[in-house]
Design brief:
mainly beta
């Protein structure tokens, strides 16, 4: 039995209907108590510090919200939180001046041992609570007192050959979870990225230190796809910019040096491939044309 042309085309059209946007979720899991790393925007009397950890997107993805967990130190509380900023970086050498490095294989600079697998020189995109009303909103949840066994605090980042300090030691503070919503979502092409949160603390003696998570990622965290390397956390301050140092390998050091993830999660949805819409449209146009031909023959 032969299928009629219009039946075949109808079945074809159904076969190429694009899938709805799939939910996206990524998490490194909860704090492991091993490291706390300063990260903040510049403000009166305080220089900028950035810390980043990576995530990977298989396809174009819209990121609507995120969480991250850190310590408020020096007696600061949630009432002292000022500007909150989230930046997204691609992986070096993208968005970077490779010419200022030594080139392969280490891509070292006058300031750092290597730029391989670091965040790029400059950010890819960002969201911020400022200027008012900004494109980021947040809520905070206090989780009680928490101690990290080591830290990288303001003033603890140094260019080579003095980059390996061992860290700034244990630190205790108020553990706070930040839940941020991007009122203008990030729309990110498939790629490897770094997530960089920054929190301003108005109290002159207070700081925000981002807490580490297990590396490699363990449940309930989200493993990286097969073949994709889970990169370790990196940091820099405005004096090291545009270079970065590895929190574990470069700053803490040791043999072997520890490596760290940082505690964060991302929520969003994938964007359907445009090609599937094109195929659907072509099939429907062909079906309509076949129907017109049939009517003319009647």
């Amino acid at each position: 039995m032969r299928l009629r042309l219009d039946t075949v085309l109808a079945l074809t059209a159904l076969s190429v209907v694009p899938a709805a946007a799939d939910p996206f979720f990524f998490s490194t899991g909860g704090p492991d108590g091993k490291m706390a790393t300063a990260t903040r925007p510049s403000s009166a009397g305080k220089f900028e510090i950035e810390a980043g950890d990576d995530f990977f997107l298989n396809s174009e993805t819209v990121i609507n919200s995120a969480t991250f967990v850190g310590l408020l130190t020096g007696g600061a509380t949630s009432a002292d939180i000022g500007e909150v900023r989230v930046e997204v970086y691609r992986v070096f050498p993208k968005d970077s001046d490779v010419g200022r490095t030594s080139g392969p294989p280490t891509f070292s600079t006058l300031q750092v041992p290597t730029r391989v697998n670091s965040p790029s020189d400059v950010e890819f995109d960002d969201r911020d609570t400022s200027p008012s009303p900004g494109n980021l909103t947040l809520t905070t949840t206090s989780l009680g007192t928490f101690t990290a066994l080591n830290s990288v605090q303001p003033g603890g980042i140094h260019p080579k050959p003095l980059q390996t300090t061992g860290g700034d030691g244990a630190v205790t503070g108020e553990e706070v979870e930040f839940a941020v919503t991007f009122t203008t979502p990030f729309d990110l092409p498939a790629d490897h990225y770094f997530f960089v949160p920054q929190v301003e603390v108005a109290d002159p003696s207070g700081n925000f230190l981002w807490l580490s998570a297990p590396r490699p990622i363990v449940p309930p965290g989200t493993p990286f796809p097969p073949g994709v390397t889970d990169l370790q956390a990196w940091t820099r301050d405005q004096f090291l910019d545009p270079d970065w140092l590895r929190v574990g390998t470069d700053i803490v050091g040791g043999g072997p040096a520890p490596t760290f993830n940082m505690t964060f999660s991302l929520t969003g949805e994938t964007v359907p491939e445009p090609s599937s819409y094109i195929l659907l449209g072509s099939a429907l146009l062909a079906l309509a044309a076949a129907g017109r031909k049939k009517l003319r023959k009647v």
